[in-house]
Amino acid sequence: MTPFELIPPIKDYLWGGTRLRDEYGKKSNTDILAESWELACHKDGQSVIADGEYKGKTLSYFLAEHPEASGTNCEKFEYFPVLIKLIDAKNNLSVQVHPDNEYAQRVEGEYGKTEMWYIVDCDEGAELIYGFRDRISREEFRKAIEENTLLDKVNSVPVKKGDVFFIKSGTLHAIGKGILIAEIQQNSNTTYRVYDYGRVGADGKPRQLHIDKALEVTNLSPTKPYIPAKPVQLSGRTVQILADCEYFTVSKQNIEAEAEMCADKASFNHILVLDGEGTLTAPECEIKLKKGTSVFVPAGTGRYNIIGRTDMIVTEIK
Question: What pTM was computed for the model?
Answer without folding.
Answer: 0.96
